[in-house]
């Protein structure tokens, strides 16, 4: 089964994440991973991540900090398994709750926190469709604190409510790229950059094509107006009263209706500039319109 873009990003992040050696970084990873857990009366904690692989490192980190846990894996269907991390002992739940107050103490703590939070609560959209990185939380206060943590680390996010959840999100592609680079998802970051380049080139090509199409349509309309004006003057016998230079222009236009103004100007003897030719054709059109007005 093909993985979503979001899961691919999480797997890359997890693969590139170096196991923390300091207690502060371990605490911050777990703080991010269990960030959305609600601790009520020290009841059992059960967390079900969408990346099963993350349970291995999480269980090991919990053990390092004296928190007992166990993982139960089940077959959801033929193509999918689900895993749940359980923490049931009251003392372990208390330790995990205290860990939510862990502070960033070294330059690697923030990365550890963001990795844990992204793997468990983050979602990133496929850049081929849209740019969005979001963290969905059930607690408004925690969402506000996460927003502030992002801000302190140079990431500008926003917050909104979605039904009973609170979403901390950004649609800024550069912010998403910076965040992915920070947590170690470099390939995912490069894929978004590459996608942006492709989109930009495609948009430029479309703008050029649309502009060329509009110019062609405009030129064709003008050409038809010129020919109709000449035919009008011929039909009412006024063509013979045109000056020689206007007659020459009219004859060239009738003989070469498909040529652009620049190409037609080059055929004149002597050659004219595009603006000079355009003025003479406009004069022919004005004469034809005046004749039509007089007839009415």
Main pleated-sheet profile: 4 strands, antiparallel
Order of helices and strands: HHEHEEHHEEHEEHHHHH
Amount of beta strand: 5-15%
User: What Rg is obtained from the alpha carbons, in whole angstroms?
Assistant: 35 Å
Count of helical stretches? 11
Level of helix content? Answer: 55-70%
Averaged pLDDT, please?
Answer: 88
| Poorly predicted runs | none
Which structural class fits the helix and strand makeup? alpha+beta
What strand order characterises the main sheet? 4-5-7-6
Number of strands: 7
Shape: rod-shaped
Our measurement of the CA-to-CA distance between the termini, rounded to an integer number of angstroms, reads 75 Å
Break the fold down into its secondary structure elements and pairings.
Blueprint: H1 5-16, H2 23-33, E1 45-47, H3 54-64, E2 70-77, E3 80-87, H4 90-99, H5 109-121, E4 122-124, E5 133-137, H6 140-152, E6 158-162, E7 165-170, H7 173-183, H8 186-235, H9 244-255, H10 261-267, H11 274-295
Antiparallel strand pairs: 1-3, 2-3, 4-5, 5-7, 6-7
What does this structure look like?
By secondary structure, the protein is an alpha+beta fold. Helices cover 58% and strands 13% of the residues. The chain is built from eleven helices and seven strands. The strands form two sheets. A four-stranded antiparallel sheet has the order 4-5-7-6. Strands 1-3-2 form a three-stranded antiparallel sheet. Helix 2 crosses helix 3.
């Amino acid at each position: 089964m093909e993985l979503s873009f979001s899961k691919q990003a999480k797997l890359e992040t997890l693969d590139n994440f170096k196991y923390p050696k300091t207690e502060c970084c371990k605490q911050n990873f777990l703080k991010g991973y269990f960030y959305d857990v609600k601790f009520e009366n020290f009841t059992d904690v059960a967390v079900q991540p969408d990346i099963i692989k993350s349970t291995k490192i999480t269980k090991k980190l919990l053990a390092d900090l004296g928190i007992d846990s166990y993982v139960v894996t089940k077959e959801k269907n033929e193509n999918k398994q689900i895993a749940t991390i359980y923490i049931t002992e009251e003392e372990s739940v208390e330790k995990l709750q205290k860990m939510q107050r862990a502070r960033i103490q070294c330059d690697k703590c923030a990365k550890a926190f963001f990795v844990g939070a992204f793997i468990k609560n983050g979602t990133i959209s496929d850049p081929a469709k849209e740019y969005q990185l979001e963290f969905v939380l059930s607690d408004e206060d925690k969402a506000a604190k996460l927003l502030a943590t992002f801000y302190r680390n140079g990431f500008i996010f926003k917050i909104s409510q979605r039904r009973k959840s609170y979403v901390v999100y950004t649609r800024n592609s550069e912010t998403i790229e910076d965040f992915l680079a920070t947590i170690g998802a470099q390939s995912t970051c490069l894929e978004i950059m590459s996608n942006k380049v492709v989109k930009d080139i495609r948009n430029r090509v479309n703008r050029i094509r649309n502009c060329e199409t509009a110019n062609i349509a405009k030129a064709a309309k003008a050409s038809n107006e010129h020919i109709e004006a000449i035919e009008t003057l011929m039909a009412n016998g006024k063509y013979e009263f045109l000056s020689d230079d206007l007659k020459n222009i009219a004859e060239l236009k009738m003989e070469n209706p498909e040529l652009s103004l620049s190409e037609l100007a080059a055929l004149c003897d002597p050659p004219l500039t595009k603006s000079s030719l355009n003025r003479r054709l406009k004069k022919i059109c004005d004469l034809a319109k005046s004749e039509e007005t007089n007839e009415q």
